[in-house]
Write a structure and sequence with these properties.
It is a single chain. By secondary structure, this protein is mainly β. It has a single domain (about 5-90), classed as Translation factors (Elongation Factor Tu (Ef-tu), domain 3, Beta Barrel), CATH 2.40.30.10. It contains 1 helix and 8 strands, in the order βββββββαβ. The chain has one helix spanning about 70-75; strands at about 5-10, 15, 20-25, 35-40, 45-50, 55, 60-65, 80-90. A 4-stranded antiparallel beta sheet has the order 1-8-4-5. A hairpin with a 3-residue loop joins strand 4 and strand 5 (about 45-50). Bound molecules: flavin-adenine dinucleotide.
Length: about 110
């Protein structure tokens, strides 16, 4: 089931991936499948879609490249600042079964 009204969530952790990309971690437990996305509202700025990554049962993350007004504003936010969350949305795909590969075959 998805949340259709923005749920205000505090930023729990920020991981700096590189000078243009940050990962934002939130505490919220919901069912999500590979390929789905959420809408993140940056208060006073805009609402934008981002892919969802589950870190464990209670945490999810979004990894954001700062490219325009909304994503640059998100990059300026600090631990404890609140964003609005809606989702998850979109279709999903199944993960293939684990297979072992060898680069030495041939
Ligand atoms: C379903 C969906 C899932 C998405 N998931 C992610 C995600 O997981 N992480 C993420 O960082 N973005 C993701 N995006 C894109 C994200 O929504 C954009 O980063 C966002 O729209 C940029 O908003 P902005 O207001 O900061 O910049 P805008 O004003 O919208 O764009 C500024 C400029 O940057 C360009 N631009 C927009 N996005 C990118 C980009 N990712 N890379 C390079 N140039 C870009 C635009 O064409 C424009 O020229 C997703 C988009 C969709 C539709």
């Amino acid at each position: 089931m998805s949340v259709d009204h923005p749920l205000m969530l505090p930023i729990k952790d920020i991981i700096i991936e590189n000078e243009r990309v940050k990962t934002f971690v939130f505490d919220y437990n919901f069912y999500v499948q590979p390929g789905q996305f959420c809408m993140i509202w940056i208060p006073g700025i805009d609402e934008k879609p981002f892919g969802i990554v589950k870190r464990d049962g209670f945490e999810f993350m979004i990894t954001v490249a700062a490219v325009g007004d909304a994503t640059k504003a998100l990059h300026k936010m600090k631990l404890g600042d609140h964003i609005g969350f809606r989702g998850p949305y979109g279709s999903s795909f199944s993960m293939p079964e684990k297979k072992s590969f060898s680069i030495l075959t041939g």
